[in-house]
Amino acid sequence: MEHVLGGQLLHRSNKGVTPTELGTLVFRHAQAITEAYDKMLFEAKELESSGQVLTILATPSIHSYALPCTLYQIKKKYPTYSLQLQAVSSDAIEDMLLKGRGDIGFIAGRPKSKELIERQVFSDFAYLVAGEGLSVPPKISRAELCRYPLLMLTEAQKTQQLLHRYFVENGIALERLQVLYQLDSIESIKVSAVQGYGLAFLPYMAIKKELYHKQLRIVELDCGRLEFDYYSVKRAASSADERVRAEITRYIESSISETIC
């Protein structure tokens, strides 16, 4: 560079090196060039993502109780992206992703499709709960469970399918259960349980508030708690735009367990 500029950039001696007047000038302009380059890269990235929409599909329980606080943190980190959150059943989420109608999904249990990339992001226990108005002891056996009215989700819900598996694994005969009625949302079952209409198996993230306010109480079952594993599912990123989206989805996956409301 000294040859190109036709002057000495550094004073060299046994004590070390110090910049000459020309060297100081070159250093100052080099800093300005570096800062301008970094600013250009930042603005290019902002321009690339400006006005983009990230579509997030989630089961109703994750949609209502896990993601709202997570989305707030995402919006702070990626302000130029618009976030669209949709509540969809687990099976429908897989179908929509395969058809390119979403960027990332959150489902209960592992996905059926082998074409999607999966990652377990968090787990949550489901508890047997009762409203304060329902007369039931604090602990019951599997046999005693059949004596009480039970509020259940519809068979199409993935969490209901996992609950059925739990019953079978623990020797609970499905045909002996007194199912009062089946509803299509956890929120509607929770409202019915609070009113004392029956027992219900509900995820902890959905009942924290009601337990705190003593609207619901946990009834211990002798076969232990039911644990739900929740997974993120997505397609592989193939374009530059999708790689930016992939960066955001990785952030969601890594932070959701810490930001559940």
Automatic annotation (TrEMBL):
PROSITE patterns the record matches: HTH_LYSR
Start and end residues of each HTH lysR-type domain: 1-20
UniProt similarity note: Belongs to the LysR transcriptional regulatory family.
GO molecular function: DNA-binding transcription factor activity; transcription cis-regulatory region binding
InterPro entries: LysR_HTH_N, LysR_subst-bd, WH-like_DNA-bd_sf, WH_DNA-bd_sf
Keywords of the record: DNA-binding, Transcription, Transcription regulation
Gene that this polypeptide is encoded by: cysL_26
Source organism of the structure: bioreactor metagenome
Name used for this protein in its record: HTH-type transcriptional regulator CysL
